[in-house]
Design a protein that fits this description.
Oligomer: single chain
CATH architecture: 3-Layer(aba) Sandwich
Distance between the termini: 27 Å
Largest sheet: 7 strands, mixed
CATH class: Alpha Beta
Helix content: 25-40%
CATH topology: Rossmann fold
Order of helices and strands: HHEHEHEEHEHHEHHE
Length: 239
């Protein structure tokens, strides 16, 4: 159960996504090449139950469903959930906070949370809920921002526009400690290569394109500890 203050915080975050982030739902597209690559590393999903926490408009779940998975999702934004239900009518979707998941214990074979955990009010509670609704052998894929991002450390990056509502950015070791504290074991980490795309490189002022191009290609060479975002692949700790 969340406190009244936390509920107010949830409402503020929900309003940001409803009015700003999902204010204009554009034409849906499949997930880009770098996401498909990560999905292959995560594994196959034929017949599995897959949950995406803070699922947004469901692009990831649409990909998993195309691989034969049964899907479920939750998001604070009713607008995003309505889009999920339109595109994936066979899935189970709910509107609400990640800290209290409306799913049965031990239900999901895989749980994902993509670029959202940093915005959650009570991160340990949300992670424990993800663990609760997963099977003993479930896989977890969690994408989070890295405070050790080299460009951030040089003072050239101050965060995404979502920092306006809430964005807690930790070092990789701090994220690892958080996951382990709630009962997850990290078995692999992988860089996020979404800047390696024409759309990212050309976003914004044209005078910044050369620098963005250099950074995009540098991310393929920088060690994980310097990456902008990092995928954590986890499993439940064994007793």
């Amino acid at each position: 159960m969340t406190s009244p203050d936390a509920s107010q915080d949830h409402r503020e975050i929900r309003d940001f996504y409803e009015q700003t982030y999902y204010g204009k739902l554009g034409i849906r597209r499949c997930i880009p090449w770098h996401c498909r690559r990560i999905a292959r590393k995560f594994g196959s999903f034929g017949g599995d139950m897959v949950l995406d926490v803070a699922c947004g408009t469901g692009e990831w779940l649409e990909h998993f469903a195309s691989q034969g998975a049964q899907v479920g999702g939750i998001d604070l934004s009713a607008r995003a959930i309505a889009e999920c239900e339109r595109v994936l009518p066979q899935g189970e979707f709910h509107t609400g906070p990640a800290e209290v998941l409306p799913f049965a214990t031990g239900r999901f074979d895989a749980v994902t949370c993509m670029g959202s955990l940093e915005h959650f009010i009570d991160k340990p509670a949300a992670l424990r809920e993800m663990i609760r609704v997963s099977t003993p052998t479930a896989r977890f894929m969690i994408l989070v921002p890295n405070a050790g991002f080299l460009t951030r450390k040089l003072g050239l990056f101050r965060g995404t526009h979502q920092v306006a509502v809430r964005e807690d950015v930790l070092e990789i070791d701090q994220w690892t400690a958080l996951f382990e504290s709630v009962g997850l074991s990290v078995y692999s980490r992988w860089r996020d290569l979404h800047p390696l795309s024409i759309s990212w490189i050309t976003n914004g002022s044209w005078v910044r394109i050369p620098l963005r191009m250099i950074q995009a290609f540098a991310l393929t060479l920088w060690p994980v500890r310097w990456q902008y975002q990092v995928y954590f692949f986890c499993k439940k700790k064994t007793p």
